[in-house]
């Protein structure tokens, strides 16, 4: 008796509709006629194993009397031990049983995340994500596997019972498409850092109790990072954006125009320089990017400013693509341009660097407007400025001014504000607002002794 036996094919099962089991178990019904064309090697009666290959058409199986009746050659039979579930009698049959067990379908959803294999002779379930080994014997079941999936640190948790939909917006702000949503903590952390940079929030916002409770109400799975962690994330974002912009500048064929300005904070007495790049991309769209915002130690002379500016150009590798350098119209900037020309290769510049220095048109326009206002109004603008500064100096004075506005029934809600000397349009806004409150200034001049002490600094009716 050689070769493994096989389960009964579907055609044979139709001819044996009352046979309940085939293989290493008992037949319990009356015999039915079989056709020898089926590739079946063996069948079992109660005490016999019969060879189908020796049967021909017309042979019958008498299961009631445990016998095979043949019209031609008798079938081969081998004695077996009588039992309720006969045991296979050779290695081929044992291998068949093992193959049946191996081919058994794993229906539990846990096996979508585990692989079943033998480790040191013991069947183990290995996690596809964290590679942890868990028991995989039949007695173990799959509950412990499902519990592991719920807490596995390498699995991005997703609630498959109810998928959420998110709207993907197009460039015009309209809903372009709908997509399934699942929580990704890395994306949430990136968006948190981007929000802090975009709105200039303090880094300590991530440690505020109210913010943490609000974040937990939105997504309990999100762990709010510490201040140092979000600071490190923001620096990584900066480096990533910097490398991206460097690749754009390297691949872009146009030159780069640079504008820079320097100012000193009054409360810190520290000088800062901002450097902005302007270029036209491959789609002929003007692009503006802030390349550097840095502290410049004093003294703020031409040499120190030139060194700081040259360091920025070398860092971004654009000294060979420099078009123009736009600066304010002051003597220090003129000297700084001369320092830059000595450090740059003039052969790479337009007209050997003669067009490098561009004077800021807005700054020149501001100087023209200021001189024109002085010629038209003399010191009247300064007196109006002093008067406004008096009433907005303290909250109490501002309340008195607003009370006078209500008493005079002036239908205006504009707030008094001082101008910025370097922005001539702010001077226009200051004068236009003060003109609306002309009657209020006149009334307060009569009733407030502290205001009258300004003396010659008070604006006149002509002003």
Describe the structure.
This protein is α+β, with helices and mostly antiparallel strands. Helix content is 38%, strand content 18%. It contains 14 helices and 15 strands. The chain has helices at 10-15, 91-102, 143-151, 185-199, 209-218, 227-251, 302-316, 331-343, 361-377, 380-391, 395-407, 424-436, 438-447, 449-452, and strands at residues 42-44, 48-51, 60-62, 67-69, 77-79, 114-119, 122-127, 133-135, 164-169, 175-181, 256-265, 270-280, 286-296, 322-327, 357-359. A 5-stranded mixed beta sheet has the order 13-12-11-14-15. Strands 1-2-5 form a 3-stranded antiparallel beta sheet, with no helix packed on it. The chain has a 3-stranded antiparallel beta sheet with strand order 6-7-8, with no helix packed on it. The radius of gyration is 45 Å and the shape is flat.
Decide which structural class fits the backbone.
Answer: alpha+beta
Average of per-residue pLDDT values? 76
Summarize the biggest pleated sheet: 5 strands, mixed
Stretches with pLDDT under 50, minimum 5 residues: 1-6, 12-60, 62-66, 68-89
Widest sheet, order of strands: 13-12-11-14-15
How many strand segments?
15
What is the string of helix and strand elements?
HEEEEEHEEEHEEHHHEEEHEHEHHHHHH
Instruction: Report the portion of residues in β strands.
Output: 15-25%
Shape: flat
Question: End-to-end distance, in Å?
Answer: 124 Å
Radius of gyration: 45 Å
Please work out how many helical segments DSSP would assign: 14
Q: Classify the helix fraction into a percent range.
A: 25-40%
């Amino acid at each position: 008796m050689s070769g493994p036996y096989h389960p009964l094919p579907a055609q044979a099962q139709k001819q044996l509709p009352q046979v309940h089991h085939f293989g290493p178990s008992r037949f319990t019904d009356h015999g039915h006629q079989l056709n020898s064309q089926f590739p079946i090697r063996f069948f079992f009666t109660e005490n016999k194993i019969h060879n189908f290959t020796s049967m021909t058409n017309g042979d019958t199986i008498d299961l009631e009397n445990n016998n095979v009746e043949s019209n031609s050659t008798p079938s081969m039979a081998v004695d077996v031990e009588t039992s309720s579930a006969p045991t296979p009698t050779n290695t081929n049959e044992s291998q068949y049983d093992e193959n049946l067990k191996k081919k058994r379908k794993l229906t539990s959803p846990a096996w979508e995340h585990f692989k079943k294999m033998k480790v040191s002779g013991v069947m183990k379930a290995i996690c596809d994500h964290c590679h942890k080994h868990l028991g995989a014997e039949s007695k173990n079941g799959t509950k412990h596997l499902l519990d592991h999936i719920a807490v596995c640190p390498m699995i991005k948790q997703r609630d498959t019972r109810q998928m959420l939909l998110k709207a993907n917006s197009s460039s015009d702000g309209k809903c372009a498409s709908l997509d399934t949503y699942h929580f990704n903590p890395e994306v949430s952390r990136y968006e948190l850092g981007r929000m802090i940079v975009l709105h200039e929030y303090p880094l300590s916002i991530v440690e505020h109790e109210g913010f943490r409770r609000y974040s937990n109400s939105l997504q309990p799975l999100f762990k709010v990072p510490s201040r140092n962690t979000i600071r490190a994330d923001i620096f990584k974002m900066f480096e990533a954006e910097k490398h991206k912009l460097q690749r754009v500048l390297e691949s872009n064929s146009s030159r780069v125009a640079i504008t820079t300005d320097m100012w000193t904070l009054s409360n810190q007495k520290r000088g800062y320089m901002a450097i902005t790049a302007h270029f036209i991309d491959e789609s002929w769209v003007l692009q503006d990017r802030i390349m550097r915002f840095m502290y410049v130690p004093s003294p703020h002379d031409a040499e120190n400013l030139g060194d700081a500016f040259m360091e920025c150009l070398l860092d971004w590798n654009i000294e060979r693509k420099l078009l123009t350098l736009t600066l304010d119209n002051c003597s220090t900037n003129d000297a700084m341009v001369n320092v830059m020309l000595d450090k740059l290769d003039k052969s790479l510049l337009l007209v050997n660097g003669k067009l490098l220095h561009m004077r800021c048109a807005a700054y020149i326009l501001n100087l023209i407007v200021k001189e024109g206002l002085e010629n038209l109004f003399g010191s009247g603008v300064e007196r109006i400025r002093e008067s406004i500064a008096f009433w907005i100096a303290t909250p109490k004075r501002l309340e008195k001014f607003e009370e006078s506005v209500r008493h005079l029934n002036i239908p205006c809600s504009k707030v008094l504000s001082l101008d910025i000397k370097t922005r001539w349009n702010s001077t226009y806004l200051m004068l236009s607002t003060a003109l609306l409150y002309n009657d209020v200034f006149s009334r307060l001049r009569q009733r407030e002794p502290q205001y009258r002490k300004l003396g010659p600094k008070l604006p006149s009716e002509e002003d």
